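Private note to self, pasted from the team thread so I don't lose it. Backbone tokens:
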């Protein structure tokens, strides 16, 4: 049955290989289970958004499971999907603030609505085949600068969450003078482990880093009663920096938390307001670019390209778009194809059975919610994952055409603007507005498509509306 459904023999593979590949992919990307609810609820930034941690966790796992299962059964690709790193920070750092500035009572509901609308648009574009025009409208340098900018943004947040970087009134930020504080130690343990294992190409390196940080936090928590009285001052430091922020779970397995607080809570009326249009455009573009890049990269590795074109690409795009639509309805940010799927392909995964295996594991993970909540509630544990993911995203900087100022300057504005404005939307808008202007004034306007000019005008309107 499996052979007939997934054409295993045709792809020269077997159920054991595909299941092992699925396990490998899951271990490599499962950090999103811990990070996603911490980001969307605002726990990671110490700025509550109003979203329920348990509901977001359930939405994350169920949306990932459903989208990945559709990818495996419909497109028959060995590619897993989940809420995207990058898109989740756009949701919190851009969509919610824009909705709040527009005066909406529950900004997170407007942000979910924008995600839902973007997913519907992506689905429509996938069905009618228009996505290629959108992708072609933005130059390669600009596409890669977006990934680099988001990578820098995520990495900086990770350094702050790990308390290695702290605020300073004179220089804005500085290295933490208390370099041996519990928060920093927990972060550094996970970061070193994850970085070394990544360098040694160990599967699930980021997950092992998170678990190492967790063990370090538990070790310090449990060692407090045994600290000698002569170190009482240090003990007080540990009490203030660690004990109040970190609470070990009292159980490992439990029933999944309710989806109710976020299920169908998106505000579509607010999402379709003028103020939210730029947010929808950004969500749409990011989803299109992320999905296309992942499908091409992993598809080439898996031998799914024929004459440079992906087989069943429309089915794959539809699967991705459905994931975003369903995810927003459940209560999570944009669901997209994960580049970590390459780890499973490297392990031998070639068919949709790999993806279906990942989908099943996401459902199983829900029953370990106490552990997820424990990890997600203490930011230094997941901080190393952010820094490592940011570093991997930043490697796209080599693909920017630095020798061409009309490409390099807008790209630089984008990649530096995203972390410095603390907004993916603002940084992206800076670059996308500058691109056609610089090209046009350099007498190279013929290199700019009409789509880019329209987008620039829309983003200028975004600046006017948001900051006027």
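Design output:
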């Amino acid at each position: 049955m499996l052979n007939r459904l997934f054409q295993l023999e045709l792809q020269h593979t077997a159920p054991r290989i595909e299941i092992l590949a699925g396990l490998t992919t899951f271990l490599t990307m499962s950090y999103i289970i811990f990070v996603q609810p911490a980001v969307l609820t605002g726990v990671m930034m110490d700025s509550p958004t109003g979203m329920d941690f348990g509901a977001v966790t359930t939405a994350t796992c169920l949306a990932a499971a459903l989208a990945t299962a559709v990818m495996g059964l419909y497109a028959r690709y060995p590619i897993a999907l989940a809420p995207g790193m990058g898109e989740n920070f756009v949701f919190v750092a851009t969509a919610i603030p824009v909705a709040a500035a527009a005066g909406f009572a529950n900004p997170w509901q407007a942000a979910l609505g924008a995600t839902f609308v973007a997913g519907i648009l992506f689905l429509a574009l996938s069905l009618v085949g228009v996505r290629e025009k959108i992708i072609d409208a933005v130059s390669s340098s600009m596409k890669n600068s977006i990934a680099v900018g988001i990578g820098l943004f995520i990495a900086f947040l990770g350094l702050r969450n790990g308390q290695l970087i702290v605020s300073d009134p004179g220089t804005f930020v500085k290295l933490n003078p208390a370099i041996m504080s519990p928060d920093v130690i927990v972060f550094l343990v996970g970061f070193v482990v994850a970085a070394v294992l990544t360098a040694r190409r160990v599967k699930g390196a980021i997950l092992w880093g998170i678990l190492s940080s967790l063990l370090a936090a538990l070790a310090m928590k449990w060692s407090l009663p045994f600290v000698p009285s002569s170190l009482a001052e240090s003990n007080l430091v540990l009490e203030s920096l660690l004990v109040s922020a970190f609470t070990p779970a009292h159980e490992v397995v439990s029933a999944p938390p309710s989806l109710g607080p976020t299920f169908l809570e998106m505000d579509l009326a607010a999402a379709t307001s003028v103020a939210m249009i730029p947010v929808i455009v950004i969500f749409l573009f990011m989803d299109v670019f992320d999905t296309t890049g992942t499908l091409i990269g992993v598809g080439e590795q898996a031998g799914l390209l024929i004459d440079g074109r992906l087989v069943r690409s429309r089915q794959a795009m539809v699967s991705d778009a459905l994931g975003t639509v369903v995810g927003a309805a459940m209560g999570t940010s944009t669901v997209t194809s994960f580049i970590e799927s390459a780890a499973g392909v490297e392990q031998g995964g070639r068919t949709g059975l790999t993806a279906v295996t990942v989908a099943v594991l996401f459902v199983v993970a829900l029953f370990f919610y106490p552990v997820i909540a424990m990890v997600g509630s203490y930011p230094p544990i997941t901080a190393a994952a952010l820094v490592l993911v940011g570093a991997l995203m930043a490697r796209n900087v080599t693909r920017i055409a630095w020798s061409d100022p009309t490409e390099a300057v807008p790209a630089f504005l984008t990649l530096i603007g995203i972390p410095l404005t603390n907004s993916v939307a603002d940084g992206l808008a800076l670059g996308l507005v500058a691109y056609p202007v610089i090209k046009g004034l350099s007498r190279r306007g013929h290199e700019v498509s009409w789509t880019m000019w329209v987008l620039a005008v829309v983003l200028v309107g975004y600046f006017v509306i948001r900051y006027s």
